[in-house]
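README: folding subset

This subset contains proteins for which both the sequence and a predicted structure token string are available. Records are stored as plain text. Below is the entry for Protein FAR1-RELATED SEQUENCE (758 residues), shown exactly as it appears on disk.
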Amino acid sequence: MEIDLEVPSKEQEKLIPGSNETDDVRDAEDEIDVEDNDENPPTTSEHAEEACEPNLIESFTGCEDQVDVTTVEADVCEGTILEPQNGLEFESKEAAYSFYREYARSVGFGITIISSRRSKRSGKFIDVKVACSRFGSKRESSTILNPRSCPKTGCKARMHMKRRQDEKWIIHSFVKEHNHEICPDDFYYAIRGRNKQSGAVACQKKGLQLALDEKDVELMLDHFMCMQDENPDFFYAIDLDNEKSARSVFWVDAKGRHSYSHFGDVVFFDTFFIRNKYKIPYIPIIGVNHHFQYMLLGCALIGDHAMSAFVWLMRSWLKAMGGQAPKVIITDQEKVLNEAVVDVFSDSRHCFCLWHVLSKFSENLGCIMNQNESFMTKFNKCIYRSWTHEQFEKRWCRMVDKFELKEHEWVLSLYNDRKKWVPTYMRDTFLAGISTTERSKSFASFFDKFMHKEATFNEFIEQLKSFSLELYEVEAKADFETQNKQPELRSLSAFEKQMSMIYTDTIFKKFQVEILGVVSCHLQKESEDEDTVVFRVDDFEERQNFFVAWNKREFDICCLCRSFEYRGFLCKHAILVLQMSGVSDIPSRYILKRWTKEAKIRENLGEISNRLHFRVQRFNDLCKRAIKLGVQGCLSEEAYTIALQALEEALKHCVGVNNSAKSVFEPNILSVHGFLEIEAENRWNTTAKSSKKKKMYKRRKVHSELEEVATGQDNCQQMISSRAHTLDGCYVPQQDMQGIGPVHGLHSFSQHCIKASP
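--- output ---
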């Protein structure tokens, strides 16, 4: 027996404007054409939701309390559609409803049936609308003592389905966007009914509780304390909700913070593991070193996918990196991520990850791809072979016209965001190889072999340790080979010989490809004025003409392909022009330091000494340099012995200097900048082990801004001693910190260790 979706009352008929006798006669068993009205009177809409929801859901699914809905696979073009699309077919209204409910559950919002209609001739359903549970306007509560929660926001997200003449149901229209932050509890709230909220929803796990239990949280805190004991530059932050439950966690080790100081120009917040429903909601924060290798600049676990969670993460990460924002931020193409980046990194260039955009094609355009073999060929030509904005616009318009994609919602969103992911619009931005065709694999594909979807937190921590160790070993090996092996030259080019001494091995090989590619190009002068000559370079390999402008007075060169701006080294077209112009060496302005062997070498010690006027600043600087020494000193027994002897000798020398009667201690006056460089999170470290259980229930504010600047020697010593200073497992007591001075020659010791490493 089929249950009528309409409330049997005359008032309920008012739910659908235009639902009258004429419409019912017209929409009998013939072609159905029902207007999709977004406007519903608040009072009757609320009434419909309350009156219909429990029984209606039961009529669709057969079980009122069923939450783990079996995913309905829709066979359209031999592919499973994970997101509703107009025209998607279902065998029954129950299948269509279950599909939308499973979609709502995966995204994290509640749904409710706002209207439905039957045919007067047959009595069968012909039209059903299902919407986000926050549709309609908020109604004034009739009671002050028990006001309604989960207020209405007028959300337009909904799915409108209709029955065809062949008895099948189709999605007539689908609105994806919500006007509120997604709240996963809304799903359970809507599907269990209002009267069951306190008994059902209140006990629902939320945030990181969905992935971590109490033992996992304790394990995580133990791991953090262990890491902080090993090195005081380890940083972590925990975001707690009002119930003192962990919502999000962020951490970064000393290696990541140190690496960011050298390679912090491009940073990628990768949400691959969240988007692909991994049990552990892991977000790696990624950069690229001078060997073109991935490096970890931080890790996070996000339990709430709202904008506020990503804002918290980005702000915590920014504080860990000393407040220095990167030039470029790369994320997935998500609204909440876009809003978070605008909020935190307003001065950084925001780009979308090209791999993530391309990975969604089969999901959103699977039918087009299966029906038209030439689609991807046309698309790739439009994306990768367009060298000017005008060229891209023309090809894009022809492509959407040919495949009838003008009104496709996802394709429209791609076009509107084109400046954030299409290479043509980003060639003026250095991306360090992230989100470019330079890489065949994403970061996730490398980490995926260490982590499976259903990994427990304990397994995740162990796998992350193994992965991090492998990253460090690969980088150390590349450092050694770059410093000790000379790359093979494959031409007589003076540029090739010059850059073989400057670039790291990996980058030199990429540059070498450009050197060897010069032979496939033909040069022709197009125009010339007083200072600038414009050449046309016919590239027979690319089958494209490129224009190169060369300013001989300023030694300035620019190619249409924008290789230097985009990849960080000159292209074959510019190299050919320089050769033909009689230039013997590549100008220094076109040698990006971050790709060179000396990328990690900072300014000389004399310049640093002049800059570090205060004791705390010098202390922080020595800690960072000690980390660098430790990285090189641990690579071999010989390097370890050299580093250990150097440290012991330096310590004795400093103690002798400081104990000398001639040594005059400097007044310990702190500037605001020097004071804030002491990380607030480490103040918590000294009592961490004794108060571990209290820590789980006490809300902790990480990185709170200091309200006062302490001055004078007593305040400084108190500040310094509040940190658990550990270096190579040794605790530095407060008395040993008195009058600590600079260790001259530490840089040379580090260089000696590099030479001694295998």
